[in-house]
Amino acid sequence: MSRILSAVAWPYANGPRHIGHVAGFGVPSDVFSRYMRMAGHDVLMVSGTDEHGTPILVQAEQEGVGPQELADRYNRVIVEDLAQLGLSYDLFTRTTTRNHYAVVQEMFRTVHKNGYMVEQSTMGAISPSTGRTLPDRYIEGTCPICGYDGARGDQCDNCGNQLDAIDLINPHSRINGEKPKFVESTHFFLDLPAFASALEAWLKGRQGWRPNVLKFSLNLIDDMRPRAMTRDIDWGIPVPLPGWEENPNKRLYVWFDAVIGYLSASIEWARRSGDDDAWRPFWNDPEALSYYFMGKDNITFHSQIWPAELMGYDGRGNKGGAPGPYGTLQLPTEVVSSEYLNVAGQQFSSSRGVVIYVRDMLARYQPDALRYYLSVAGPETQDVDFTWAEFKRRTNDELVAGWGNLVNRTASMIAKNFGEIPAAGELQPVDHGLLATTGAAFGSVGDLLGGHRNRAAIGEAMRVVQEANRYISETEPWKLTGDRERLGTVLNTAAQAVSDANTLLAPFLPFAAQKVHETFGRTGTFAPQPRIDEVTDLDDESRHYPIITGDYSATPRFASVPVVAGTPVAKPVPVFTKLDDDIVEQEIERAKNA
Questions:
Q1: Cα–Cα distance between 411 and 421 in angstroms, integer?
Q2: Beta bridge partners of residue 231, listed in sequence order
Q3: How far apart are CA 38 and CA 468, in angstroms?
């Protein structure tokens, strides 16, 4: 058994999340975490809502509320949506907890003490009309290196180079289009060049990463410069140093504090568990494994900034130093980045109305239908387009007519002919062949899931479903009513194939997995689901918020479990809902009217 940290990107709390977000961080991380639990590992899956930074202030101003009120509102919306999607967090929290503030400030103090936070003057962008600081990511222009029109003030997504907003050609604010004004300001910079050799050695030692992620990360080494970790803003975590902490207009950079959330959430989880040190085996043990899930626009922060913060805390840069009270913190085992899920050839954009919100999707369709689509046709290694026609086809032709049909026809024949799972007589070669196929799939599907190849894994699991459907068509049990022993053998074999396929598909389709488990007469929890708890802030009794958590101890093993003859099986109800032909037109019209 290994300890595995499943560190999931923190959704930003300035609005509801769309399906492009959960395609990148949500479903892939949950599939992996559920599989790893089934494989017998000790998994800690953590995340929360990211609630600091200028975008929160901008949205709050637009809605006529304070930033904390806005964050509170969307934190709850996001918690409800992700729980409804079945994402099995051990803790989904938020960055405005007092615990998070304390962990972030401790990280900053130790990185600073070790010499990796350097004070420099820089030219910062402000909005001429509001006087408010403009974050790098809210400034766009032409890249001075490759000429790409649409580069951000911190990075060009076309060539991958880090940028300074002042270097952009024709820079403009994404908020209102105005040209930013640049003024001199003093900030703390993370001394990234001090980690260049250590980061390069670490990255070159990575095995099994997606090639595009590793290549992009290594390219960052070529242009490594100090990066500002404080901002001129009044919404965020105070800088924990004399002369700075009292300044109401200086705060830690939202991306400095957001990635530390993986650690602070782990510490909060431990404190809520009753064992304050329960987080340490996931962070201090060199044998522990950690996987970070996100979309490709966040690779920089997880393969460069966060590892550098960890190295700075541990004193592993070229200036040396010593770890603080959290001890030596392990670097990521893998940064698992997905590409973009687009719609109609465009990137999702709430501001442009190109969006399908998770909440709206789950109000009209089964969560497993969305999980299936994002697993079998999602942006694992390349950008892909979501279309309603393909969503309908996948749901009806594969889930309903494939997996759902196998479950329904098998259970119906057992209920009609025996009322319980029949005993098997002597197996024939065709029976042995199907059971060999289902048994072998645990190794192949498990290997694919462990390597984050979800599309191939679910394809292999659905191949088992196809083989089982073919077996029923070939053996024709409906013609065997005069041979009870052979009929019982065929239906016992089919029931075993359904049981195996259900286990193989459980990481992807947890809601259906529980239904199938119960359809075939089994009791208890088969696919544990998350729950929402209302909690009090551990360090501020006046603050309350919802978290996602759960008890996943009932997770079954990722292996074939023999069906038990005599287990009652009643007439089944459909597991999946077939979609009407007109949903495509309805959804297109709904988007036009939104």
A1: 9
A2: 251
A3: 23
CB 95 within 8 A of CB 10: yes
Joined together, the tokens standing for residue 276 give 């304050």
Amino acid code (one letter) for 26: G
For the chain, the maximum distance between any two Cα atoms, rounded to a whole number of angstroms, is 90
Q: Determine the angle formed by the axes of helices 510-519 and 405-417, rounding to 10 degrees.
A: 10
> Pick from 226, 229, 52, 57: which is nearest to 127 by CA?
57
Give the residue with greater pLDDT, 54 vs 466.
Answer: 466
CA dihedral 199, 205, 206, 212 (to 10 degrees): 70
| Euclidean distance between CA atoms 502 and 552, whole angstroms | 18
Whole-number Cα distances in Å, 24 to 19, 51, 74, 174, 342? 9, 19, 19, 23, 11
Q: Identify the CA nearest to 406 among candidates 462, 368, 367, 444.
A: 462
Query: What is the average pLDDT value for the chain, to the nearest integer?
Result: 95
495-537 pLDDT tens trace: 999 999 999 999 999 999 999 999 999 999 999 999 999 999 9
Name which of 399, 278, 412, 391 is nearest 343 in CA terms: 391
Give the per-residue pLDDT at 269: 98
Two structure tokens written together for 399 = 């889930």
Strand duo 531-537 + 540-549: pairing: antiparallel
Strand partners, 227: 190
Contact 421, 492 (CB under 8 A): yes
Q: How does DSSP classify residue 221? A: G
| Residue with the two structure tokens 């892939």 | 28
Tell me which residue has tokens 């109609």. 344
3-state secondary structure of 368: helix
Q: What's the pLDDT at 568?
A: 97
**Which DSSP symbol is given to 575?**
S
Q: Please name the residue ranges forming H helices in 333-479.
A: 358-364, 367-376, 388-393, 405-417, 429-450, 454-475
CA dist., res. 380 & res. 451, Å (int): 12
| Neighbour tally for 242: CB within 10 Å | 7
For residue 241 the two structure tokens come to 């140093």
DSSP state of 578: P
Distance separating alpha carbons of residues 50 and 46, to the nearest angstrom = 13
Beta bridge partners of 357: 18
| 381: three-class secondary structure by DSSP | coil
Phi and psi based region of residue 454 (left: phi greater than 0; alpha: psi -120 to 50; beta: remaining): alpha
E strands within 363-519? 384-386
**Cα gap 290→309, rounded to integer Å:** 16
List pLDDT tens digits, range 199-235. Answer: 999 999 999 999 999 999 999 998 899 999 999 888 9
Tokens 């599939």 correspond to 31
Rounded Cα–Cα distance for residues 494 and 435 (Å): 9
The answer, yes or no, to whether residue 331 has pLDDT greater than 80, is: yes
Q: What is the reported pLDDT for 112?
A: 98
Give the tens place of pLDDT for each residue, 427-444. Answer: 999 999 999 999 999 999
Whole-number Å distance between alpha carbons of 312 and 323? 8
What span, in angstroms and rounded, lies between the C-alpha atoms of 133 and 121?
15
Nearest partner of 79 among 532, 511, 529, 536, judged by Cα: 532
What is the number of other CB atoms lying within 10 angstroms of the CB of residue 83?
A: 21
**What's at 50, amino acid-wise?**
D
What's the gap between Cα 447 and its chain centre?
Answer: 20
pTM: predicted TM-score of the whole model, two decimal places:
0.94
